[in-house]
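Let us work through a complete example step by step.
Step 1: write down the sequence.
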Amino acid sequence: MELNEIYQYTKEHMQKSLEALKKDFNTLRTGRVTSSVVENIKVDYYGNPTPINQAASVVASDATTIVITPWDKSILNEIERAIQEANIGVNPNNDGDQIKLFFPPMTTEQRKEEAKKAKQFGEKAKIAIRNVRRDANDKVKKLFKDKAISEDEEKRALEEIQKITDDFVKKVDELVKQKEQDIMKV
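Step 2: predict the structure and record it as tokens.
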């Protein structure tokens, strides 16, 4: 393995940590409710566990309401049961055609709690990034130990990996800050 491959590996794996962070953020609630709240809920659709958004239209009709309209009305009760079991903090309202989820506006306390979770997700991403850095550094040190690169090349490579790490940590901090602002905005 050569140094450019190590840099590439480092960037790719750190990028995956950022993507995971963004996915984690989708589970957080902001001032506006989004359809991602029900994204991970699966409904029994003809014997197959299917994400709700693949069996129904899921729309955030306003800041506090999600409307779920199944393409096949016969699974309306299945969707309702799946939402109740998912325990997302609201009870589904089934009117026979669609299900409406009414989310109460968030309290300041809830906003602070969600902002705290965003920080925790950010820390988790930074740990993952540091683990990638450690792996990359180990690979560089092994190349030096195996005499595949000089001491100067090793030093430059470790600096380059640190630079890549710093860039990704900065991106994580920016994403966390942005998410906290979204959450705290009323």
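Step 3: interpret the result. The chain has two domains: 7-27+107-184, 35-102.
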